Records
---
Amino acid sequence: MANSYWVEPDVKFVKQLMGLGGETLKKCYQCATCSVVCPISPDEKPFPRKEMIAAQWGLKDKLVGNMDVWLCHHCNDCSTYCPRGARPGDVLNAVRAYSIQEYAWPKWLGKIVPDGRFWWLLLAIPVAIFLFVLGVTGHLHIPEGEIEFAHFFPTLLVDLIFVPLAMVWIPLTFGIGIYRFMTDIHKNALAEGKTKRKDLNIPDFLKSIACALPTILSHNKFSQCSENKGRYLSHILVFFSFLGLFVVTNIFFVALYILQIPGPYSMVNPVKILANVSGIALLVGAILMISNRLKDTDANVSKGSYFDWSLIILVLGLAVTGLLSQYIRLANVAVIAYPMYFAHLVLVFCLFTYLPFSKLAHMVYRTLAMAYSRYSEREPCE
Ligand code: SF4
Ligand code: SF4
């Protein structure tokens, strides 16, 4: 006898998905074209048709914690071929946005970061903190003489703000989110018969991360799509530029505090070159993301929700303010260079503080889902 399932529709959940960019979900009539055309979906229990009916019925427990939602790369092949304009790619994107809120800790930040009404508050928090810190330390003015950012915002103050964010805030908030996510993913996979492994064995799971790494680093899932190939280049540029800037930040931290070599560093210093290449790659990646979204004239493909755009604008802002801070400093225009550096630090603060609650969190959650898919043997290890 088939297993019975008690359906408990969550109408509020349906409305929330519609508010996060999944407003077309009710158009689906379950023809399954999307599951057939999706180049990423496995043959066994394919997606996204089953997720579409779960979204229509408000079956939150079938969507939040569903690894398939994270295996989707939002390439929109399915949306292009959907005969009803139900935009399954956008619906899965909305489920991911909802899930990021669901796993967030503290919850209130998970609610306000994706809410377009509060963008000014998210910016005002670092502006107020920085103005206060600069004010009480006597640095709230444009310094005289040759431009050196450390004369305006001393490096020690910058590090006293950003090191705790990087070493305590992100690991703590993201750690809680990741714990909740992994617990749910495993529970859901067991309930849906997607894994036979009863426990989540950490050493084996780490091996699965190693298995998924070549696919993640090469971004080759994007190149399997036929409709939206431009996303491959923009995503790989942004991904590797963040990686490059992460390496640069750590090297400069070691240079300053361990090797005692204070900046500013020469423009031909290899680490500085890596910083500039990464900054330019970030800028190009952000511009490509914007142009890909704007130039897509397919009525079945949306231009993105506030959740998507807030990340793209942040990435663009980081690249523009970072590069301009440097070039305006070299041009020795103090009255613009220092405020530009201030704006750059505000955006870096936003990136660090809101990372676990923003769309950028998908980089971590998708990596874990791709690893879990190999752990559960839903996908083979390459
Ligand atoms: S989302 Fe579109 S393609 Fe997929 S099952 Fe529904 S109607 Fe068919
Ligand atoms: S958006 Fe792309 S990856 Fe996601 S379900 Fe549709 S076709 Fe598959």
---
Amino acid sequence: MKTSQELQQLRAVLLAHYDKNGRSLPWRIRPKDREAGAIADPYKIWLSEIMCQQTSVTAAAPFWHKFLQKWPSVDDLANAPRDEVLTAWAGLGYYARARNLHKCACIVAHEYGGQFPKSEQGLLKLPGIGPYTAAAIASICWGEATNIVDGNVERVISRLRMVDIPLPKGKGEIHRLAGKIADPQRAGDYGQALMDLGSQICKPRNPKCGMCPWAFACKAKEAGFMEEYPKRLKKQKRPIRYGAVFYMQCGSKILLRKRADKGLLGGMMEVPGTEWTLVKQTIDTLLLSAPVRRNWQVCEQEVVHVFTHFTLHLTVFTAQVGKEQAGIWAHLDRLDDYALPSLMRKAIHLAQK
Ligand code: SF4
């Protein structure tokens, strides 16, 4: 088959498959919605794209509804105190996204008159919007002919064309090949169709090639090597870090503090604790960092939490006190009012066992 003919066919069959089987997502404008007059709202699309970075659609959807209910427009979000936004985000993880979300809302509301820039290049200037997100928003909202490539798309293209350069080095080649196929006419639908193909059919394990509209052209399928793509450089073992938290309870309140603004979990709340080190400290050494001298009890179990670049083992100390010292004392029934990341919720849960 001639290259141009094949490209036309790849686009046509993928879009036909999407028209018939594309997922209905709360933020998605399906072709039939568009025919009925619906148009994509950049604020809603931007929120969904930021929330779905490193998070599944199922986990992100309730947060998306909650945010829109609390802050129906980008101006509302910009005018909300940042701590309130972080609290509403708690549980979704990767908290730099929430800090950038608020920063971006402030810029759009105060410097762009409440309107998102109407091009991929313009969107790229905003905090928290990288190449993938800019391409997705520009194509979905304004039909700009962009080239949307995320992890799902990398997998599909590397299999379709059997790209042998391992990731991350192979990203450039995959991007180039994806750009050749991208449909300039129905750019937004095409990008969403390709993401659906990656997440629903061309899965990392057991791809459903029998249901795939691109099976006719897929080199990896023809060779029977689907799961061997994308090729990857051997992963380094994730290092372990160690630390401790000091859970102090006074009646029905516990002591919390706010983390520094920069760095991991920046601006979130935490149970006071130690630095996280590569070497495990003894119990006696950890206790030197306790906020007060008490008869601290140590929990038998540790909290184990996996971050992208390391695994954290957290020792949990507990103590009951009769009087509140200076600091933020949170009522145990009202912890949802605080921006507590999952790690800290796990530590609190363990301390209460
Ligand atoms: S044929 Fe199979 S391996 Fe190839 S793109 Fe489709 S689902 Fe993926």
---
Amino acid sequence: MLEQLTGHEDPHPIYERLRAHGPLTRDEDGMWVTTGHALTNKILRDRRFGVRYADGSFPDDGSPLPQSFLGMDAPDHTRLRRLATPAFSPKRIDHYRTRVEKVADSLLDSDEFDLIADFAAPLPISVISDLLGVPDADTADFAAYGALVGASFDTGVTPEMADATDKVLALFDRLISERRRTPGDDVISSLVAAEAEQKLTAREMLGTLVLLLVAGFEAMVNTIGNGCRALLEHPEQWQLLKSNPDLAPAVVEETLRWAPAVHLTTRIAHEQVDEIGKGEIVTLIIAAANRDPEVYPDAHRFDITRPHKPEHLAFSSGAHYCLGATLARMEGDVAFRALARRMPRLRQAGEIRYRESVVIRGMRSMPVSRS
Ligand code: HEM
């Protein structure tokens, strides 16, 4: 059923049809699907489910990218995630905030621009470059590679993407060699130190770096894009933000709930769990869980004043809960605050083009004008 969707179509009517069959059901192809918040959250937190099969093998997605801890179960997942965690400490995120504010301000200087290409994309790429220690001279190349890798979610693996992957890996290889000679205060340097202590292999280090690039870029671009579109389509909510920019964090939360960048994920049962057999795959529809009427009254309404208890599942839950969540919330806060302050008359000025992916939901382009 889900495969019938094209990327730009509103999938919620399909999610609602699945919801009518209860929180756990099978789709037309016989695959398990969850739509309820409580069950989706429970499975994400349940150690009897993993992202690989119980024997450690995994469903091959055809991607030429090196495996990362997003696609691993404990104990490898725990070990590798722990090594990347210090980069996301509150102190570091505070340090990035000043930079994001500067970048956001510098991007909002034109009268007519593309919300995605000229604002939502360059903002996170500058943060990730900073976090990973990519020199300014390489940032443009890095952004182009990141965008291509991101596009592969829509197009599948193309020769262009395989080529881009080689280039990203070559860039990371170069940066790793440089940090081996001259360590700095960035993620690559701390991973290089961990490699020297044999806490991870060179291949695992590359996998971690590519994950931080792709995860930190793709989901963020679409969150900023989806939030802006939601605000422009709901003028009364846009007005609320403009009259009180301190509502920017609430815009981030409601965007994550109502229009999450990542609509679904999957887990595999490592043993029989109730009706789900060992080795069976469950598709967890985060976007449907986020509109569960049992949890969120009037769930299809975009309302930045609603309470978010329990938290939406846009950042997933359990062992793979988004490592960049605090950073993402800060970036979103800065982005929406800057738009409200600098572009109070922002309006759509051309046709929106949507992404084609069924998993990553958002816009490819949205022309806007500041007046
Ligand atoms: C608003 C933007 C973002 C959203 C919606 C988002 C969403 C997610 C989701 C849904 C997952 C888990 C997928 C699963 O359980 O199968 C995840 C994992 C992850 N995210 Fe994010 N993310 C965002 C921003 C970021 C940023 C800015 C970074 C860092 C630069 C980041 C780094 C990661 C990492 C490293 C993981 C893997 C965690 C693990 O496997 O333990 N994310 N994210």
